[in-house]
Amino acid sequence: MLSRLSRLPRPKAVAVCFLPVVALLATAAFAPLPFSVAQPGLTVDVLGENKGDPVITINGAATRGTSGQLRMTTIEATTYDTRVGVTDVVDAWFRTDQAVMPRDSVYPSGGDIAEIERYNQAEMDKSQDLATRAALSYLGEDEDAVEVDLKLSDVGGPSAGLLFALGIIDKLDGDGRGGDLTGGRVIAGTGTIDTAGNVGAVGGVALKTQAAHRDGATVFLVPRAECADAQSELPKGLRLIPVTTLKGAVSSLVALEQGKGSVPSC
Known about the structure:
Elements: H1 10-30, E1 35-45, E2 49-50, E3 53-54, E4 56-59, E5 69-77, H2 86-93, E6 99-102, H3 103-106, H4 113-139, E7 147-150, H5 161-172, E8 186-189, E9 192-193, E10 199-200, H6 205-214, E11 219-223, H7 227-232, E12 239-243, H8 246-258
Helix pairs in contact: 4-5
C-alpha cells in the first residue's frame, strides 16, 4: 500500500519534505548560541592618566618623568545575556574586525552579571598586585618600602599585568641608563604576569593588535604562545615582539631603544 506522501505529485512531495528542513534552519537562525562576538576595545597608556587620575602612583621611591606610551589593550564583547544567533556568527566570521569566541572563555564565572563584574574586578586587582610584586622584585626594591597604587576604571581581567609591570619599571628606573623603556615610541601589548615575572597568554590578540594600531602603536608585545594569532590579522606597520618573561620584555625594549642587541620577532 502506497503512503499518502508517495501519491503526491513529485513537486509537491519535494516541497512537503523540504518544509521541515526550512523550519529547522529558520529555528537555528534565530536560536541563541553559546558565543560572544568581540571587537577591538579601548587602550590605555599606563604611563599617563585614565579619567583624570594617574594610572600608576608610586610613593616611597623617587620616580622619573617618562616619554612615549605603554598602552594596555582590551577587547569589547557582547554581554553574557546578549542573544547571538547564526546570522551574527556568520557576519563576524567574514569580518577582520570581529571575532566569535565561546561565551565561557569570555565570561568564565557564569551568567550572573553582578558575579561576572565581581570576578573581572577580582582578576584585575590580582593582576595589579602581581605586576607590582614582579616589577619591584625585578628592580630589587623593597616591597614594604615602596607603595604602588594602580588605578584603571571600567576594565577588568588579568591581561594588563605585563604592561602594568613595565610601567612601574619605566617610572622607577627607565632603561637603567637614564632613558625611557619606550624610546619615545607608542608601545602596546598584552599578557598576564606572575610574581616570578612569567608572562602568560590572554586571548583576543588579533583584535588587540588592531586596537593598538588604531591608537598609534608601532610595537606590540605579545605572549610568545600567541604569535600565530597576533600575525593572523596584523595591521601594516605594527611590529610584534614576543615575550615570555618580564626580564625578556625589558631587554627587548632596551635593545629596540638603543639599536643594539637582538630584538626577537614572531
